[in-house]
Design brief:
single chain, 351 residues, alpha+beta, Beta-lactamase, 11 helices, 47% helix
Length: 351
């Protein structure tokens, strides 16, 4: 082999390696303005699905135990709801037709990925493709911040502790701290606020570095949430039912103490909602990156409920999906209360 040929051969190898490296970096950084470059490592396929109506016995009826003087009839009231939902809902043309409309709409486009609705006070739910994982983008900031606040409420984290913003935490994408100077200090409370209110990537990375994604993952696994933080990555997967559990836990801790109330206030004032508020107070956290675009909310209707919408519509028109789902779920929610819950309440109030 001649010397000149060997040099040309080595040069070609170096060029190929460099090209592969650059291609990898480009692929890893093709993101929207929210999550910062993590790439999903799981299937996001969706087969034609059915919307499921369900009811969990004795879910959370304490409010009605107290407010409606049901006394020892709480179990009978729950059984009434279960029976009414099992029979009347499936026969009820209004609720059944609304659920069918949602099912057909979601089946019409594979980018309409999943939804989950939960009535907080009774456990009545409607879900579609709720167990299938999808890249979660910045909705993953919500469970981490909730974890931090829960630990703080137990005295394990000091929200006034300050962390220093250094160049290792710099991140493009959403948020405001990327524009600040290195060396500035922020309290844990401030970072939690920025991570939710502004979906701030820098704040999220600083919190995760301090408290560990792996610790938040174990915390949520103990609560039955298993789809998040794959490989301890900041931005990973989620499914609709787990998103619902996360928002339900937020609702629960908001009733426990001042820490929970403060955190709920951050979520109700967060920016960037895709599910419309419709004149209601709404706690929410959205996320968007590449094709993934999601929102998970608590709507403080007269009877509060949770709505999760996960989609792959990030590169096409998406707002109609969120509007349509919100409208139909709102109609289902009010029909359920007008026809089912109030029926059972009147039955036991009159006995």
């Amino acid at each position: 082999m001649s010397k000149s040929f060997f040099i040309r051969y080595c040069f070609l190898i170096i060029v190929m390696i460099f090209t592969c490296f650059v291609s990898y970096k480009v692929m890893a950084s093709v993101i929207d303005k929210d999550a910062d470059g993590e790439v999903p490592v799981f299937s996001e396929e969706k087969n034609e699905a059915r919307a499921l109506i369900s009811y969990e016995d004795n879910y959370e009826l304490q409010k009605y135990y107290n407010d409606n003087n049901l006394d020892k009839k709480i179990v009978d009231f729950s059984n009434c709801l279960h029976s009414y939902i099992s029979t009347k809902v499936n026969e009820n043309s209004n609720i059944k037709n609304l659920v069918s409309e949602l099912e057909n709409y979601y089946n019409s486009d594979s980018n309409n990925f999943a939804f989950y609705y939960l009535d907080i006070n009774t456990g009545f739910s409607v879900a579609y493709n709720e167990n299938q994982k999808i890249f979660g983008a910045s909705v993953l900031k919500a469970p981490f911040v909730i974890y931090v606040y829960k630990q703080a409420s137990m005295g394990k984290i000091n929200l006034d502790e300050e962390l220093v913003y250094t160049k290792e935490f710099y991140s493009k994408g959403s948020g405001v701290l990327q524009n600040e100077e290195f060396g500035k200090s922020y309290s844990i409370k401030e970072l939690c606020y920025y991570a939710i209110h502004d979906s701030d990537n820098v704040a999220y990375k600083m919190l995760a570095d301090r408290f560990g994604i792996e610790n938040a993952k174990e915390f949520w696994k103990d609560l039955g949430v298993n789809s998040i933080y794959d490989y301890n990555a900041l931005f990973s997967s989620i499914n609709a039912v787990d998103a619902g559990r996360i928002m339900k836990y937020l609702y629960d801790i908001s009733l426990e103490n001042d820490y929970g109330k403060e955190l709920m206030s951050v979520f109700t004032n967060a920016l960037y909602n895709f599910i419309p508020k419709d004149g209601l107070v709404m706690a929410h956290k959205s996320g968007w990156a590449n094709t993934s675009i999601h929102d998970m909310v608590i709507k403080f209707d007269e009877n509060p409920y949770i709505l999760i919408v996960l989609s792959k519509r990030g590169e096409i028109e998406f707002q109609s999906l969120f509007n349509f789902t919100s409208e139909k779920i709102g109609q289902i929610h009010h029909s359920f209360w007008d026809e089912n819950v109030n029926y059972c309440l009147s039955e036991f109030k009159n006995n």
